[in-house]
Design goal:
Helix content is 0%, strand content 51%. The chain is mainly beta. Strands 38, 40, 41, 42, 43, 44, 46, 47 and 48 form a nine-stranded mixed beta sheet that branches. Strands 3, 5, 8, 9 and 10 form a five-stranded mixed beta sheet that branches. A five-stranded mixed beta sheet has the order 11-13-20-15-18, with no helix packed on it. The chain is globular. The termini are far apart.
Length: 826
């Protein structure tokens, strides 16, 4: 099995045909886990997995060797802690998509296929994990266990949390077939039953799909356990580098009472889960020292919405799985009774985090802050994003709670799109204090429920306007995929930035520890830009390999933020979803059918000033020259160009390079409202390439391909002037005709020099001539005379514009343009 470390490691892969190779897709790994110190035999399902060379796990000590009949033997050393890890197949066509592999510390069994009814229930011991799957629609799996009266048995099913499409339902029956308990969702849609055995005897657990669907991918891990299990920790956020007393809540924790420094107690009156009779949660007090450095490998399953959280895993010895805690750099206040009305509000010192709990129905927690007039506070609450079953609402009031000043609800963020959903029900808001004084903050849960539930945790962050961000790379495909770079080609993924607390500046992303032959130029997300293309390129001589990809991001005020990886678990709506992965991995395999090279810094020829290096500014035009290197010289097709990662303020453009040409241009207008900063875009090309040999009739089969250029980074500097076309300027010109095109220039930012304007295009201006005009002094309006030749080609000329050069002491310094949409007609 390939290592999960940061360095890229060589693996053996064969060269494939020039046409686009099929993408390996891993649908499921069965069983989807094993216990520490064991070797487990697994089978893989998916597409294009015929030539699997190895398996890659995000934990470097977990290894794999080939087994019989296409199976794999995964060895888990004893020192690998419990947790969730990422698994991929390595094939001759590169890496497969990612699936979850769970490491546990309980005995493991496989489901017996004959356990389809109560009478034929499979007999299993306690403290076991049963790996099963619902292979056909309507299947029911049954498992029989024996337990003594008053024994506490926790029955939990993992399906969604191991990337399975199964919508599991759990039921418990007694020996007579009477149903005693049912659960359809406890950890999100994954069910759990806290079962207190009513009397000595046999009991049966049933597992099935809520809508009675099934397939080979409908896998699950059923845990029937009487050992220690941690449900959550309180406080759930602790300060970095500070040893903190923490209370762990869960089941059967008394068994851990013999650990040094541990005290086990019990909290009563807690229904768990709500539809059952009240059960008591155990609690145990421990001291936790968080890691000093930021962690890049965390054995936790994390949703895409958790990208802005820094978390670590704490494992109580003997417990079945680690529990997640958040890290913060500011002091933490713990919510404590009584603070359920304005008169008992807990005072907060900004900045701070609060770890709170809304266990009682209709409960409200109140806090106070002191603020100066005009002071900006960012208030953010975490509930859904830390796995808590709450829908939080935050309100700000004046000192006597008589007037609500602000109200924050669900965060609707569409920047991640369908492939990286960032919408959640946690409130985030910016508030400006109207006057000096004391203000009240109220937190409450909007989810209606009549029961007490201690799982309803929250984290409240109160900060000043201290900018920050989090970044993730997101595949451009809406289907499960991996980062596979073809030799001689490129791969593009999206960089998605979650800007926090008012960060508007440019963000720079840099790749580290790349091997020879693989390139990943720096990427800039311009001011207020939340998406940009990250392009990986492999040259023709690159050796096949697979390894981790390390990316760090910085801005003017924030440095060295790690960039998280992500994967699409299931494509499509409404059942598709994505999640974070431990570390992104990249492979080089196959061969690109063609290669695009883009250049956004070519000089512009000028009849007065020679070749000019363009200084981009708002109110100008960015010209990107695109070169096509086709592998098949005996077959050519047009290449349709579009921009990738173009900021929303910049109008989208297209261009087509004809089949008989190898070069073209695509041009983008930089509007006057575009913020000054550094930006990165890329160019996408769509075309057809040969697919296989010609048929008997001599016809060449083809396939559609999409390729990407290298990234184009450009700096936008303050403008000296802008050019605006007269709204009544002509839009058509006849062959042999002369028209006058009116326009206006506006000098800005103190510029008072000359402006020379003329007709220009990124390529040659064919059949049109324009007589240039020079503005001096305070002249703002003018006309340029355009002449169409008698043989001018009919139609519109791409990227035709009015182009101005601003002069300082007879040196061309500034540039400005506006497109001229002029059609040549008969």
């Amino acid at each position: 099995m390939a290592s999960g470390g940061a360095a890229l490691s060589l693996v053996a892969m064969t060269t494939v045909a020039i046409s686009a190779p099929p993408q390996p897709v891993l649908n499921s790994v069965f069983p989807a886990g094993g216990c520490s110190g064991c070797t487990v035999e697994v089978s893989l399902t998916g597409q294009n997995l015929d030539a699997v060379h190895s398996l890659r796990c995000s934990h470097s000590k977990i290894s794999a060797t080939p087994g019989d009949e296409g199976r794999w033997l995964i060895t888990i050393p004893e020192d690998v802690p419990p947790g969730s890890f990422d698994l991929q197949a390595i094939t001759e066509n590169g890496l497969s998509s990612t699936r979850t592999f769970v490491v546990g510390n309980r005995a493991e069994l496989l489901e017996d296929d004959a356990s389809n009814d109560l009478a034929n229930a499979q007999t299993v011991p306690l403290d076991v994990v049963v790996n099963g799957r619902i292979e056909q629609g309507g299947d029911l799996d049954h498992f029989r266990f024996t337990a003594e009266e008053n024994r506490r048995v926790i029955i939990e099913c993992r399906s969604e949390r191991i990337d399975s499409p199964l919508r599991a339902v759990l039921e418990v029956f007694d020996a007579d077939g009477s149903r005693l308990a049912v659960n359809r969702g406890y950890f999100g849609i994954d069910p759990l039953i806290d079962f207190r055995v009513p009397r000595d005897g046999e009991y049966i657990v049933r597992v099935y799909d809520l809508v009675y669907s099934g397939s080979a991918d409908h896998i699950y891990r059923l845990e029937i356990d009487t050992g220690p299990r941690v449900l959550f920790a309180f406080p759930n956020v602790i300060e970095r580098d500070k040893t903190t007393p923490v209370t762990l809540y869960g089941w059967n924790l008394q068994q851990a009472d013999e650990l040094p420094g541990v005290t086990a107690t019990s909290i009563s009156g807690v229904p768990s889960p709500p539809e059952q009779s009240p059960q008591a949660l155990d609690r145990i007090d421990v001291e936790i020292t968080p890691p000093a450095a930021a962690l890049t490998h965390v054995p936790l399953r994390q949703a895409s919405t958790e990208v802005g959280l820094e978390q670590f895993a704490y494992h109580l010895p003997g417990a079945h799985a680690p529990v997640s805690l958040s890290l913060t750099d500011v002091p933490v206040t713990t919510d404590a009774d009584p603070n359920h009305d304005p008169t008992t509000a807990i005072p907060l010192t900004v900045p701070c985090d609060v770890s709170g709990q809304l266990a009682v129905p209709e409960e409200t927690d109140w806090f106070t802050v002191e603020a100066r007039r005009g002071e900006v506070l960012w208030i953010e609450a975490f509930g859904e994003r830390i796995g808590s079953p709450v829908d939080l609402e935050i309100s700000l009031f004046d000192e006597d709670a008589g007037t609500e000043l602000a109200h924050f609800g669900d965060e609707a963020s569409g920047i991640g799109g369908k492939r990286f959903a960032l919408n959640h029900v946690d409130p985030i808001g910016r508030w400006v204090a109207p006057d000096d004084g004391r203000y009240l903050i109220m937190a409450r849960n909007l989810t209606p429920t009549p029961q007490v539930d201690p799982r309803r945790l929250y984290r409240l962050s109160v900060r000043r306007e201290e900018p920050d961000f989090a970044l993730a790379i997101v595949p451009r495909s809406e289907a499960p995929s991996a980062l596979n770079v073809p030799r001689g080609g490129r791969l593009c993924v999206d960089l998605v930035a979650l800007r926090k607390r008012g960060l508007n500046e440019s963000i720079r992303v840099t790749a580290h520890d790349l091997p020879s032959g693989l390139e990943c130029p720096d990427v800039w997300l311009g001011p207020r830009v939340s998406r940009a293309p990250l392009v990986l390129s492999a040259n023709d001589a690159s050796e096949p390999f697979v390894g981790g990809l390390t990316l760090l991001a910085s801005s003017e005020s924030v440095t060295d933020r790690p960039v998280r990886g992500s994967t699409v678990v299931r494509g499509g709506r409404p059942t598709g979803w994505s999640r974070l992965i431990d570390q992104p991995a990249v492979s080089v395999s196959g061969q690109a059918p063609l290669r695009l090279t883009a250049d956004g810094h070519e000089t512009r020829p000028h009849h007065l000033y020679g070749d000019l290096d363009v200084r981009h500014s708002p109110g100008g035009i960015l010209d990107v020259a695109v070169y096509v290197d086709r592998q098949h010289t005996d077959y050519t097709a047009p290449v349709r160009l579009t921009g990738v990662g173009v900021p929303d303020l910049i109008p989208k453009q297209t261009f087509t390079i004809p089949a008989d040409q190898e070069q073209g241009h695509i041009s983008f207008y930089l509007p006057p409202t575009l913020p000054v900063g550094t930006y990165t875009i890329a160019v996408q090309g769509e075309t057809t390439v040969p697919a296989g040999e010609k048929n008997e009739q001599g016809e060449q089969p083809t396939e559609n391909v999409t390729v990407i250029s290298n990234p184009v980074t450009f700096e936008v500097q303050p403008a000296a002037f802008t050019i605006e076309l007269d709204p009544f300027a002509p839009r058509q010109i006849r062959r042999g005709e002369i028209v006058q095109v009116g326009y206006r220039t506006r000098r800005v930012n103190g510029f008072i020099g000359k402006i020379h304007t003329e007709l220009y295009a990124a390529g040659p201006v064919v059949g049109l001539r324009g007589r240039g005009v020079t503005f001096v002094g305070q002249t703002e309006t003018g006309q340029i005379q355009v002449i169409a030749n008698e043989d001018a080609p009919l139609g519109r000329q791409p990227s035709l514009r009015l182009y101005g050069v601003g002069v300082v002491e007879d040196e061309p310094v500034f540039h400005g343009s506006c497109f001229l949409d002029l059609e040549i007609v008969e």
